[in-house]
Structures are given as C-alpha cells and as structure tokens.
Amino acid sequence: MNFTKNILITGGAGFIGSHLVRLMVNKYPDYRIINFDVLTYAGNLENLRDIQDASNYVFVKGDICTVDDIESVFKEYHIDHIIHLAAESHVDRSIENPNIFVETNVIGTVNLLNSCIKNWKAPFNDNIFYHVSTDEVYGSLGDTGLFTEETSYDPKSPYSASKAASDHFVRAFANTYKLPIKISNCSNNYGPNQFPEKLIPLCINNIKNNKPLPIYGKGLNIRDWLYVVDHAEAIDCIFHEGILNSTYNIGGLNEWTNISLVKELCRVMDHELNRETGSSEKLITYVEDRKGHDMRYAIDANKITTELNWTPDETFETGIQSTVKWYLNNESWLNGVVSGSYQDYYQKMYQ
Ligand code: NAD
Ligand code: TYD
User: Fold this and answer.
1) 274 inside domain
2) Residue 85 sits in which domain range?
3) What's the pLDDT at 149?
4) Of 110, 132, 190, 264, which cross-links 200 as Cys (Cβ 3.0–4.6 Å)?
5) Residue 246 pLDDT > 90, yes or no?
6) Active site residue 159
C-alpha cells in the first residue's frame, strides 16, 4: 500500500506515546505509523497489544541517542514527519541522575533534528518535526497566574531544564535551517498505562495493596491534570491544524493540590473496592519534600481553544473514575510493570 504519510512517533511505547500511536493508527489508515522506541523501563509494548498487527503500524526498537538507529529508520521507512515524545520523564529520577536526561532529552532530540536536515530536502514542504514538551519548562507559579505561550522559560529541575534545552534546539533548527516545526507544552497527564512511579498510578497501586501513600512536604503543591486521551487528541489537532513554527499550551483547567487529589483518589478507590469510606485516607503519609519542588503549574489553554477549537472531552470526575477502574481491571498489566516481567513481552513478540 502507498501511504500518504510516514510518521515516526518516538517514545510510542510509553504512556502518552502509546495513546497517540493508537489514535493515529486507528484514525488514519492511510498513514504509516512507525513507533520508534528503545524500550527503557518506561516503554511497554503491551500498551499497544490491541493494534500491534494493524497493517499501517510498525514497531522499530531504536535509540534516539544512536545516530545509526535514526538514520536506518529514516531510510527504511521514508520518514517524512516526526512526532517526538521519547524522553526521560520523571522529575525524581532527574534529581538522582541528571546526565541521562541530558543524553536522552537534549542530545537525542538534536540527533533527530540533524537527521531531519540531512534526509529531508529544503524547503521541506512535506515535512514537520513536532516536538512534545511540558509546561514544566516555564518554572513554578505562585498563587495566581497561568503559563501562556509567551511566559519566559525558567526551568527548575534537571528534567525541566533538559526539556527546555530541547525546545530551544527545536526552535533554533527552525530559525537556522528553516525546518518546519511545531511544539506543544502540556500539563500533567493521567490515565491508563502510566508507569506507577508518577503520583496517580503510584497511589492507586498503593491503596490497592494497603501501602503508605507518600505525600511530599505538606501536599500543597498544585498541578493541572489532563486526561491522556485528551492530550493525544490535542497533539493530533496541532499536528494537522496548528500553524507551522508555533507553540501551543495544552492544559486541563483542572488544578488540584496534591493532598486534595490523593484524598479524592482514596474516596473513589474506597467506593470501587467496597471499603469503608475514609479507610484509604489513613494510608496518607507525609514524607520529606522533593528537592526544589515546583509549587504550582497551571496552563492558559486559550490559544489552542480559540485557534484550533480544542477542548478536553473528559471531566476530572469521569477521567479519574475510568482511570481507577482501568488499573483495577488490568491487574496483570500493573503487576507486570511492578515486577518488571513486562520486559519479557518484547522478547516473546519480536525476537
Ligand atoms: P514515559 O516515560 O511514559 O515514556 C517515554 C518513552 O520514551 C518510553 O517508551 C521510553 O522507552 C522511550 N524512550 C526513552 N528514551 C529513549 C531513547 N533514547 N530512544 C528511544 N526511546 C526512548 O513518558 P510520557 O509520560 O509518556 O511522556 C512522553 C513525552 O511527553 C515526554 O517527552 C514528556 O516530556 C512529555 N510530557 C509528559 C507529561 C506527563 O504528564 N507525563 C506532560 C507533558 C509532557
Ligand atoms: P509527578 O507525578 O512525579 O509529576 P511532576 O513532578 O512532573 O508534576 O508528581 C506530581 C506531584 O505529586 C508533584 O508535586 C510531586 C508529588 N508527589 C508526591 O507528593 N508523592 C509521590 O510519591 C510522587 C511520585 C509525587
């Protein structure tokens, strides 16, 4: 079959990437979706079991830090578009080991950009490099205000510094080589298939197993939560309709302090598990604060809403309920991830 586009999605076996790959494979049968992922601890091909045999889907195990891997996927699949999600994504890990964040998030992104310049021909009429980034590049808000696309960068963790650096390189390639780019900066995502090191799946797993729920500091830090499928739909919308060389902020208009969010999760879990109301809350345990913990993130999503007519479909009430139900109904996924046995899946399926 002749595909109308050959889209390389990096990090497609991860949390957000797998939702985006599924959406694109199902919605656009005339596009070939090439999922390029090295399968770190965060990459899990079981996330894509339902579409793994689709005729417009290919998985390639490859590393954005290895130029030869990138060059061979470009050549083999005639890549003409990239949606770049591959990254180290967990702030706590970046505090323990910043270097891997520089290697993957900065050097890996520059490797991809170099390959675009090398393999695509100026004026790049049929090409787009779409970079998926985070609102954390803007730093930390006080009690008021929202991040807009004009907010100055002020990253404060090794993770956000590495994402900010990658955003700068993407814009520098647009300016210097006229590479057509798009960037989006999104708030915190939640939903099925998120690795249980992040707050929401970690708490769901711990409530289920009656383990302590570690709340950093006083639990008063604020995050703006968006359902992952809404993020994938926003990326689809920006990829197709967004203005070239521009940036879009994506957010849920849904701010929660960590402690109220965890209490809400406890309430939903008590209900789902038929536990006495209030029993899960007893697991809440205040622990030492994260080093340099950003106080508040909140997105002004006015640009994407007015320009592209995107708004989230999922309310937090329905999103959190379906997320909890998903983790409870997919025990084998959760247990596999916690035990590490999910890493056998690649061996079984692809080797
Ligand atoms: P994730 O950690 O769940 O997945 C990352 C994926 O990238 C994994 O499949 C991993 O195997 C792959 N990967 C890592 N290093 C690689 C390499 N060197 N080569 C190829 N693949 C590699 O991350 P996520 O939460 O799905 O985030 C995806 C992207 O979205 C990241 O760029 C992140 O910065 C951004 N983002 C995440 C959030 C969020 O709340 N999770 C919010 C905004 C933006
Ligand atoms: P996280 O899910 O790691 O996302 P991010 O740091 O990118 O926002 O954390 C969300 C919030 O929850 C953040 O303020 C840190 C806090 N947190 C805890 O209080 N306890 C935990 O065990 C974790 C993982 C996070």
Assistant:
1) no
2) 5-193+227-254+298-316+342-350
3) 98
4) 190
5) yes
6) yes
- How far apart, in whole angstroms, are the C-alpha atoms of residue 320 and residue 1? 40
Would you put residue 191 in left (φ > 0), alpha (ψ -120 to 50) or beta? Answer: left
How many distinct helices (H) and strands (E) make up the chain? 13, 12
135 is catalytic: yes
What are 72-88's pLDDT values in tens digits? 999 999 999 999 999 99
Atom of ligand 2 nearest to the CA of 203: 22
Binning pLDDT at 50, 70 and 90, where does residue 350 land? confident
pLDDT of residue 348: 79
Ligand 2 contacts CB of residue 286 (under 6 A): no
- Given a contact cutoff of 8 angstroms between Cβ atoms, the answer to whether 211 and 282 are in contact is no
Instruction: Determine the distance separating the centroid of ligand 1 and the alpha carbon of 66, expressed in angstroms.
Output: 17
CA dihedral in degrees (239, 305, 224, 339; nearest 10)?
Answer: -30
pTM of the model: 0.98
98 CA → ligand 2 middle, Å: 17
In 3D space, the residue among 185, 167, 200, 194 whose CA is nearest the CA of residue 234 turns out to be: 185
Q: pLDDT digit string (tens) for 168-218?
A: 999 999 999 999 999 999 999 999 999 999 999 999 999 999 999 999 999
Residue 198 Cα to ligand 2 middle (Å): 6
The answer to whether residue 123 is domain-embedded is yes
Catalytic site residue from 37, 63, 88, 136: 136
| 8 C-beta neighbours (distance < 10 Å), count | 27
Total tally of structural domains belonging to the chain: 1
**Domain CATH number, residue 231:** 3.40.50.720
Q: Which atom of ligand 2 is nearest to the CA of 159?
A: 7
The whole-number pLDDT of residue 87 equals 98
Q: Give the percent of the chain with pLDDT over 90.
A: 95
CA of residue 18 to ligand 1 center, whole Å = 10
* Residue 212 placed within a domain: no
Ligand 2 pocket mutation, candidates 220, 223, 288, 293, criterion most atoms within 8 A of CB: 223
